[in-house]
Amino acid sequence: MFSGSRHAINSSVPDSAIILDSLEKSFPPALGGWDAFLQPFRRPTSPALCGISLQAKQGEAVALLGANGAGKTTLLRILATLLIPTRGSALVAGSDTVRDPATVRRQIGYHAGSDLGFYSRLTGRQNLTFFGRLNHLSDLATARRIGELSERLGLQNSLDRQARTLSSGTVQRLSLLRALIHQPKVLLLDEPTRSLDALAAADFRRFLRTEILARQGTSLLFASHTMQEIEFLADRVAILDEGKLLAFDTPAALRGATSSATLEMAFARLTGRQLSQEEEHVG
Amino acid sequence: MRQLLRDLLLFFERDLRIAATYRSPFILEAIEALFGAATFYYVARFVDSPALREALPQGETYFAYSLVGFVFFDYLNAALDTFDRSLQEARDTGTLEPLLVTQVTLPVMLIGSAFYPFAATTLRIAVYLGWAAVFFDFPLRTANWVAVGAVLLATLLAFSGLGVLSAAYLLLFKRGNPAKWFILGVSSIVSGMLFPVDILPRWLQLIAYLNPVTYALDAMRGTLLDGAGIFSIGRPLLILLAFGAVLLPVSVLVFSWVLGRTKVTGTLTHS
């Protein structure tokens, strides 16, 4: 379960959706004033990820769990080819994120969890058509996918309204639709239910489980702070703390290994963080 | 190649759709152009004299001379400004990240995003010149439009490299457009925008002769006001194309390096 050792990973494992091998990422230190001009040229010395190694199987749902600044978003952004790792490698569906980013981008759908990212003056449909065609779908295939997915995500009535008139929750669902439009093999989600109300979030999780994971067999790597979401969706959980992978196993195994009643308690024990007495008692 | 063209046109289509949701700016800009043309006309009437006409290169009126200088600078501004502005907009609206995980690369995105601003600038210039011809007797009938098109295209190629360098600067340092500041600032004095370079001190004239904007403006005035053909503006055209041939590949290389660097520093989408 515990993943402290850095074992070499065989990158030719055929059923792996994601392979991280000794992945490290550091950023240059933040500088202010005139020194800020030198920042782009400074050596990356502030570690964000420290030797992460893990594999996610095809069709598997893996949750990234960690406090703010644990490295979850950095990891997702490396897999989305938006960041270059300092050391180690990251493979998505067999392609290296640094050596073959175009192939990686064909395989992934990425939703950063933000409710920005659309052209506010265009309608939802115009936005989605634009991004679908940038993913090299034909006009017909784009229209078909928008039709299919909007029905499942309950977006039919919002598609022909300008994006600026849509609620945060609707924009989040549009953003998920955009991530799915080209039928990616691997879906990367960064706190996907952050802007959704409780009911919409529950709907959204059900959609992910029944449609994306069970029916389409898409692999899912998502960052979340919501234990309920992680318990509901994740086959395995990667617990990150200050850039280090502390554990990577099923929720039940994590609870068992730490003698915890809840995943929250397991997380607290693994990271050495304190839960309130009330939370311990509920657990 | 077909896919690349399709990708580029997607950005033009996007910008056209966005522009279509704003109705009034075009009408307001057209009215502004009329006032602009009128201002140049009355300033020219105020300063015009036989001596001034003799001092101007092709013996044209100061109105025609200054108006061509002004509209040309509008075009130059578009070439220098478009790339970093489209990058800044994508960053500020949060669309940069979703764009970067599609199949389209950032250089294609920047070039595609330049199509609409160039087309809009061309239209704005056409409106300017149209008002000037209708109300203030601007000599449009003498223009050689094929040659005018060639000069504008060569200007775009020559100065787009500087625009791409500006976008690279923006990616790296997050604010500012030094290429625009330098080229427009220097060229407004030493290129013949509003007065011939012959009246400048000798050392400034030397700078003017090293400045490709001077040649582009000469060629523009020759084709628009004197009907000069492509062969008679061969020298300035070659100078502009040579400038572009050196600067464009250099700017693409610099931009690629900067893009990679921002993926290392994690500042690609920072503002």
Please tag this protein with its features.
heterodimer; A: 283 residues; alpha/beta; Rossmann fold; six-stranded mixed β-sheet; 10 helices; 10 strands; 35% helix; globular; B: 271 residues; mainly alpha; 11 helices; 0% strand
Could you write a compact summary of the structure shown?
The complex is a heterodimer of chains A (283) and B (271). Chain A is of the alpha/beta class. Chain A contains 10 helices and 10 strands.
The general outline of chain B is globular
The total strand number of chain B stands at 0
Assembly category: heterodimer
Helicity of chain A, in percent? Answer: 25-40%
Parts with pLDDT < 50 across at least 5 consecutive residues of chain A: 1-12
Q: Bin the strand percentage of chain B.
A: under 5%
Mean pLDDT of chain A: 87
Structural account:
The complex is a heterodimer of chains A (283) and B (271). With 283 residues, chain A is of the alpha/beta class. Chain A has a single domain, classed as Rossmann fold. Chain A has helices at residues 72-79, 101-107, 124-134, 139-152, 168-180, 198-215, 227-233, 251-257, 263-271, 277-282; strands at 16-27, 46-57, 61-66, 87-92, 95-96, 108-111, 186-190, 219-223, 236-241, 244-249. In chain A, the strands form 2 sheets. A 6-stranded mixed beta sheet of chain A has the order 6-7-8-3-9-10, with helices on both faces. In chain A, α6 (198-215) links the parallel β7 (186-190) and β8 (219-223). Chain A starts with 15 loop residues before the first strand and ends with a helix. The model of chain A is unreliable at 1-12 (pLDDT under 50). Chain B has 11 helices and no strands. The longest helix of chain B is centred in the C-terminal third of the chain and has 32 residues, at 234-265. By secondary structure, chain B is an all-alpha fold. The mean pLDDT of chain B is 88. Chain B has one domain (2-265). Helices cover 77% and strands 0% of the residues of chain B. Chain B has helices at 2-20, 24-47, 50-55, 62-92, 96-100, 106-136, 145-173, 178-187, 202-210, 212-225, 234-265. Chain A binds chain B through residues 27-28, 36-37, 39-40, 44, 48, 74, 77, 80-84, 86, 102, 105-106, 108, 110, 112, 114, 116-122, 126, 130-131, 133-136, 162, 175, 178, and chain B through 3, 6-7, 10, 13-14, 17-18, 21-22, 93-95, 97-105, 172-173, 258, 260-269.
